[in-house]
Amino acid sequence: MAVVPLKDIVERAFDGRYGVPAINIFNDLTLEAVLAGAVEASSPVIVQTSVKTVRSIGADVLFRMWEGMTAGIEVPVTLHLDHCPDRAVITECLDRGWNSVLFDASELPVAENQRQTIEVVAQARRCGAHVEGEIESITGVEDGVGSDAESVRQPLQVALDFIAETGVDVFAPAIGNAHGKYKQAPVLDVQRVSDIVQATGIPIALHGGSGLSDAQFGDLIARGCAKVNISTALKQEYMRSSLVFLKGAEQADTWDPPSLFRAVGTDVKTLTVGLAKQFGSAGKAW
């Protein structure tokens, strides 16, 4: 297989009621390791980039990395721009070749969010790309985007009208989930997922996945969460793996950066394989 549209991945997952890991990478090592983990698990994977990562590496360099590492890959993969409120970055990534974007206009009034999302969907279609939409901020700050203040949830009909009017391909509802590390066990409004799915038949994106229990993941995926976002767990694994290795290097007074990269890459790959198994996407490559 190779690079495919986001819709190809999420619709198969939605129909089969399994979840596909949507993992935020932030450098070449994490990109390589996540792709390697997907191949080992024979799983589709959604590789996500934050606005911060796009700006720090540069869209051109980042996309060339993506092209080089996915050339001849054996599983379905797709490249997604996560939580982007900046239309200029949306345009840059779509023009460069990203397969999908999350236009995050959740800080705007719903009517203005809807108006601009319609424009982004039309723009994406011209590029052969797809769009994820949302009308409420997911609590928590991720790579400089978002707020720790919980936003007011809109009535269900407002969400349904937004989905129908904009034509988004995936929808990310606020259900009590949060970005970052949960300070306490979240109370999730799982029925909201079921209500949206029943009314629209649209695949749901689950944000704030890092830290949810196996039971919560299983329930939400069964209800239609076909795209399961993971960011904090990868950052934690990367930093903890680096710390363990560097402490050992300090003790041994042995300084070999390639060995560090191999160790951390192996741990990130293992994390990816575990997520694919946990969400049910392992063995689902086509």
Work out the helix count.
11
Order of helices and strands: HEHEHHEHEHEEEHEHEHEHH
Q: What is the percentage of strand-forming residues?
A: 15-25%
Which structural class should the secondary elements be placed in? Answer: alpha/beta
CATH architecture tag: Alpha-Beta Barrel
Mean pLDDT across the residues is: 92
| CATH superfamily grouping | Aldolase class I
Query: What is the straight-line distance between the termini?
Result: 7 Å
Low confidence ranges = none
Instruction: Please tell me the total number of domains.
Output: 1
Organism: Arthrobacter hankyongi
Cofactor: Zn(2+)
Pfam families: F_bP_aldolase (PF01116)
Protein name: Class II fructose-bisphosphate aldolase
